[in-house]
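// run 5 | inverse folding | seed 20
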């Protein structure tokens, strides 16, 4: 992970911590992601990070001014994970589909962190690369600049908002997720046709559909709508 973060220069701690590691921004972000995954948002404190790293908490301020700056770095790291192994194919629709699914998967891999960060603008190197690349895909496809910017906005917000929604579900305790599953399985598949004819007709379909993310089909609908806006000469 560290090789995808900006160079730290003089900020790198040269003396190992009590755990024998050398502090770096990358290591702190990695540890923050682990703590959030294991303990939720409350884990993101300088004190708990220092303990997990075996370092004096004050040493973390050499890398991040406060926990919010660290949270933005966590968000930027999640964005960076989208691009690992990705290469453009030259087909704008295929490239956006691939990036959208990668974005969704990267945030769902860290659901607690996704809930905290999906709505943030980082200004970091990974986010900058993402904006540049996605707008480049759209402009390269032939979309005029106003359309490219509007479609970029819609594409990213659709992916991140759905990732946040799905991540919030995954971040629930297991018993809460199971209770929701039972509602779809028991309540909405047993509605009487006399009072709820549409639920009675579609209950089983609803149960199966609501057990998975809507994002793949929403992404296809978005791409269909985008294709309509593509000038004919570029199609």
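// decoded
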């Amino acid at each position: 992970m560290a090789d995808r973060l900006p160079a730290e220069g003089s900020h790198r701690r040269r003396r190992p911590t009590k755990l024998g590691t050398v502090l770096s921004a990358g290591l702190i972000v990695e540890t923050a992601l682990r703590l959030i995954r294991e303990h939720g948002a409350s884990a993101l404190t300088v004190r708990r990070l220092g303990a997990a790293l075996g370092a004096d908490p004050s040493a973390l301020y050499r890398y991040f001014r406060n926990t919010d700056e660290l949270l933005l770095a966590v968000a930027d790291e999640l964005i960076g994970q989208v691009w690992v192994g990705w290469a453009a194919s030259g087909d704008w629709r295929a490239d956006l589909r691939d990036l959208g699914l990668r974005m969704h998967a990267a945030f769902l891999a860290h659901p607690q962190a996704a809930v905290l960060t999906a709505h943030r603008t980082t200004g970091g190197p990974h986010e900058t690369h993402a904006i540049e690349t996605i707008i480049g895909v759209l402009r390269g496809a032939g979309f005029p600049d106003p359309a490219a910017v509007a479609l970029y906005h819609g594409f990213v917000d659709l992916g991140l908002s759905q990732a946040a929604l799905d991540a919030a579900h995954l971040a629930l305790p297991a018993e809460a997720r199971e209770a929701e599953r039972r509602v779809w399985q028991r309540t909405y598949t047993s509605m009487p046709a006399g009072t709820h004819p549409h639920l009675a007709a579609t209950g089983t379909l609803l149960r199966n559909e609501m057990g998975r993310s809507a994002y793949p089909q929403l992404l296809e609908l978005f791409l269909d709508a985008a294709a309509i806006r593509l000038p004919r000469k570029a199609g």
